Amino acid sequence: xxxxxxxxxxxxxxxxxxxxxxxxxxxxxxxxxxxxxxxxxxxxxxxxxxxxxxxxxxxxxxxxxxxxxxxxxxxxxxxxxxxxxxxxxxxxxxxxxxxxxxxxxxxxxxxxxxxxxxxxxxxxxxxxxxxxxxxxxxxxxxxxxxxxxxxxxxxxxxxxxxxxxxxxxxxxxxxxxxxxxxxxxxxxxxxxxxxxxxxxxxxxxxxxxxxxxxxxxxxxxxxxxxxxxxxxxxxxxxxxxxxxxxxxxxxxxxxxxxxxxxxxxxxxxxxxxxxxxxxxxxxxxxxxxxxxxxxxxxxxxxxxxxxxxxxxxxxxxxxxxxxxxxxxxxxxxxxxxxxxxxxxxxxxxxxxxxxxxxxxxxxxxxxxxxxxxxxxxxxxxxxxxxxxxxxxxxxxxxxxxxxxxxxxxxxxxxxxxxxxxxxxxxxxxxxxxxxxxxxxxxxxxxxxxxxxxxxxxxxxxxxxxxxxxxxxxxxxxxxxxxxxxxxxxxxxxxxxxxxxxxxxxxxxxxxxxxxxxxxxxxxxxxxxxxxxxxxxxxxxxxxxxxxxxxxxxxxxxxxxxxxxxxxxxxxxxxxxxxxxxxxxxxxxxxxxxxxxxxxxxxxxxxxxxxxxxxxxxxxxxxxxxxxxxxxxxxxxxxxxxxxxxxxxxxxxxxxxxxx
Amino acid sequence: xxxxxxxxxxxxxxxxxxxxxxxxxxxxxxxxxxxxxxxxxxxxxxxxxxxxxxxxxxxxxxxxxxxxxxxxxxxxxxxxxxxxxxxxxxxxxxxxxxxxxxxxxxxxxxxxxxxxxxxxxxxxxxxxxxxxxxxxxxxxxxxxxxxxxxxxxxxxxxxxxxxxxxxxxxxxxxxxxxxxxxxxxxxxxxxxxxxxxxxxxxxxxxxxxxxxxxxxxxxxxxxxxxxxxxxxxxxxxxxxxxxxxxxxxxxxxxxxxxxxxxxxxxxxxxxxxxxxxxxxxxxxxxxxxxxxxxxxxxxxxxxxxxxxxxxxxxxxxxxxxxxxxxxxxxxxxxxxxxxxxxxxxxxxxxxxxxxxxxxxxxxxxxx
Amino acid sequence: xxxxxxxxxxxxxxxxxxxxxxxxxxxxxxxxxxxxxxxxxxxxxxxxxxxxxxxxxxxxxxxxxxxxxxxxxxxxxxxxxxxxxxxxxxxxxxxxxxxxxxxxxxxxxxxxxxxxxxxxxxxxxxxxxxxxxxxxxxxxxxxxxxxxxxxxxxxxxxxxxxxxxxxxxxx
Lengths: 659, 367, 171
Prior knowledge:
With about 375 residues, chain B is mainly alpha-helical. Chain B contains 17 helices and no strands. Chain B has three domains: about 1-115, no CATH class; about 150-280, Tetratricopeptide repeat domain (Serine Threonine Protein Phosphatase 5, Tetratricopeptide repeat), CATH 1.25.40.10; about 285-360. In chain B, helix 9 (about 190-205) packs antiparallel against helix 10 (about 210-220) and helix 12 runs antiparallel to helix 13 (about 265-285). Chain C folds into two domains: about 10-50; about 50-150, CATH 2.40.50.140.
């Protein structure tokens, strides 16, 4: 009965979402606050219903109720409880339900944020969000229903795809979805503003926390996904410029631009039209990502079996929401009151530059991702666009942006002092250049770009740190004053510094991968293999059995030079329910670097072994975590400045007319 | 019925929650501008507070105040245009209520009606296993055993129970693994080792592989009398080309068999077949004409025995096939007809016979 | 990319500077975009690889030395391993088959009779040197290209799918 209640709750949620989409819109049009307030209760009710539905599905999984088709296809009674739980979203139907759950959760949060949002904007946004919910609830119910029943009931399930039986999967999709779906709120706010025809700093302030929240989670989700692919797939790669990866990366780039442009809008009441467009584009890219992942139109590293009918449905959703909002934009945007202009050398101009570069970078990824599809439709040729393309396009666009990032960070609002900003960053730049030169010298003959990349990363980290330090020490004497300044510094300033330093850390990690090495050979017990700084010795092989798999485990001793590290185990598993093999890599962390061992086939008393030396690889993900931490810090900043040039140079003190 | 009551309650609660804001709301327009004004006022206050705490300088505070004040003025200017039109609000509220009362239940019932299965109860595995008595679904018992073994992979007893079931179900790969686990975790046991060998043979499609032979050798070492191991070792001899050795081994096995051994029949049948095969090989060595004659004699013998009564599917198949190969089509058709009559009760056998007839292109005049 | 425009009439002199500023902005955005477009066009020529099935290689007259992706089914019984990491196998679409040489570990779900996508260099005379064999996540997943190739050669049975997509396993 629980299953059927969950199913009915989902169907009911669809009806409630229709109300959520229709009635508040009407209220906004007719200036009727009573009708508009229906949006809030509808959002809460539909969240409650979807949550009930999700809980019902979770219950079926936990109790191994094999009368539910979805449970049979993706679970097994012998799975540990944690994987029974993650199986819920480890498949298409369940993950769509999770998507809808997060969507309605965000709707409910908007409904509850009564005090911080103007009611008109809230009503409009809830209505737009209700429309998105209608589309995805209909998609879930009609094409991907997780509550389909089976009779007679099979005795046992088919197990979750073994590659997904991993903690990485427990975390990655929910994080990513919170990111994707979070941008639906910004989208809904943009649509509401367009319909309303009004947009101002209030709008920016209302939108900014949602954007930050979505961005923070998307950052974590992408980083988690990358790390999961790195250790689970067994070939040591962490990013492949694969369509599915790009699908999450494009909204991230657009979202990053959006965070920066909303700051300009909030502080300077400018860039309004662009910000609206960006908000629409960001969510459109999220939808595009969903389409790419769910339809299988693009061949991907991370593809699972797909269903073309679903692809078509999502394509229709995509066309409706992207086309509809862009048409609305074309119609209403010219009516919006334009914002102010600003001096060419100022924080706001630097943020515009940031937006130009980020949007361009996003466009190159977009072209690389979709060009194969276009070409195939036009000429029938099938092509693939791989890392070389992105190295030749995306990287050259991003490098200048990152180089001038510290400058923009230390420019003042309204009227900046370029020379002063350059001086403030001179020390960080000098140290970074010296570091790069030293590295170039010590790694002569190695890749040239790697030291330069590391230098760039160091520059970003130092510049972020120095900038923060300067703000704290400015006009303060003595520890107490500095401490109080540090405390008084807006959280968003801390957030900015952390996010920028995080990018720097990630770039150091990425650049250092040019020095990674790999070796592959057949090892018999007692034999050794060396790659880069690491040497492994095969101790022996033994069989082992887990709850729902059998494994052949190889034990290795690991040496870094003469120093022995803790031993490591790598294994080949065969999951019994699907008799599907997987490779479990053995990873030994050594400081920020890792030795990575994966197994091939066993042969003639030995086993094929691959060993990688991955220098500083952990920095890639540590940097992402620091970035997300920055996003989180900014999120906790409750203060709202309309125009408070906190650290303004004396020249900026005189207010300049905004228009 | 119960479930429909729950659905009705859910629907009612949802609609009630939707209707509530309509019931106690007064007709009013948006007070956005008032909100905006209070917001900007609080901004001004916050600036003063920061100034008081010396978080910002006097100049900065002045600049911020000016900007906030300017926006406050603009917000006030907007107010005139934002006045609400309130007159037909009651009518709109009624229309909305009607919409809620119709769309929500209709859509939910339509979708659920299309895809739902209100009559199917939940069937969590634990409850199914609890209910499972001897008369219950065998698969459930199996699932229970598997779940138990997944949790306690070292339970040799469990593996030794599960392995023969797998073997009987034709899941040879799993049977071999289960036997192996039983052997690994338990005491050495000739029966289990012989079972392991048997599973490996089945897995290899009847070939006595080296791995299987190893298992039987172990088994015989533990129990020189183990009939199963000895039987398969004899088969291994046959497959190695040592037909006589195999026959001798089987004969020896039979002679030592206890009178009530249930396996004796199977061994005897196999021995006879080996002897027949040996005879056929002898026939193959005869000159052409004599060979035809010898074969025909054998086939006639078979036909006679079958026409006398009884006969199973393989025997009938052999007869039909032999008649066709010998070019005696009428006899083949006759055999086919008799076979159909005799096996009329057994659908599977009939299907097999039909398939055979198709394969041999045997067409009866009137099917 | 219109970023912001003043709406109120302004003194002529200021408007001029504002217009200039806006033009500067637009010019900068245009410069960055055209730079990117140039990079994209340039990269398109050199960095993309085409996907062919075995039969298409002869049909389209692919020149030896071309970098490409090859997709099809792994021919049953064609997989041979030597000294651990050297693998040869044949990729077929039922009509033509191409011999593929690969140094490295094969992905977990690489199996005879199943679909596969490899990337590498066509060496001419029906030989292909792969530097990556793409893995898949799911046993029932068949890369769309492979499915299309098989359909073209009339060897596609829906349901009898099975094979890969993935990670460049560098040798």
